[in-house]
Write a structure and sequence with these properties.
This protein is 37% helix and 17% strand. The relative contact order is 0.16. Strands 3-2-1-4-5-7-11 form a 7-stranded parallel beta sheet, with helices on both faces. The protein is built from 11 helices and 13 strands. Strand 1, helix 1 and strand 2 form a beta-alpha-beta unit. The protein is of the alpha/beta class and 342 residues long.
Length: 342
Amino acid sequence: MSSTSGSRIVVTGATGNVGTSVVRLLSEDPQVGSVLGLARRVPDWSPPKTEWSAVDLASERTGLAERFAGADAVIHLAWAFQPTHDPATTWRTNVLGSIRVFEAVAAARVPALVHASSVGAYSPGPKDHAVDESWPTHGWPDAAYCREKAYLERTLDTFEREHTETRVVRMRPAFLFKRESASEQRRIFGGRFLPGPLARPELLPFLPDVPGLRVQALHTDDAARAYQLAVASDVRGAFNLAAEPPLDARVLGELLGARPVRLPRTAARSAIAAAWGLHLLPASPHLFDAVLRLPLMDCTRARVELGWLPERSATDVIQEFLDGLQQGAGAKTAPMAGRKVG
């Protein structure tokens, strides 16, 4: 894959949570000769060996194949989480935009495509033991995020059959956090006006313990390292990515010094649905339903075939994220701009 000057990597969604970590790692990699970052808004950020190009996948009809020409790999990360009240809009960016990326990869004869799938692509599964990458990926159909991730899994099934010359890797990470993503994720899931300083343990006398609310998390930089390893190797297929331990009310209660209090699913969902219906909360009750059903993931394949292990525990990740939330942490890109409310 590498030439004497190093490989050329194109990254879509290069200014978001995952994109900023991936671009930074690639720019520091001596085996990488150049990085082309694609994003809707070109950032005021200049990592080594990196160029930028403004692209909106929701409307881009031509030009992707030209941008991909000569690339050794395309890492496709671009994704829109909002507006959750208008799934047709996110479908245009996430699904139709991704299909344009896949078609351009084929047209430009790019040797490798590394796609950001998600734990959200998985069908409902167990919370008491972990599943490997063979678990069905039909998503939770009522949640747009899961529906879109699952649809793209089927699209890639067809792509792989029709374009055997392209090495396709599907990353299925758990929920990804880092300090610099705090402000962006607060806006995406909690709303623009949710005060970050409220994320203090002393203000949480108890934690709602909702049946099924047991999930996995991972530091974004650890996920980015898996993308970097996938580009540099010859692996194919899907890889689960998550850190230990799984997060539930007991683990978070110990971390934050808060007492878990049992809360029925219906009560929690009703509160979320009411806030979402009033446009007070961006995160939809449909996504909440999906989270309660997501399986825990076994990451053995990433360890064995990629040589990947997370450097930070899930509790370390949450602590770093909460610190960033309190401080309004961010980065020098439009999606990641820091802002403290309250």
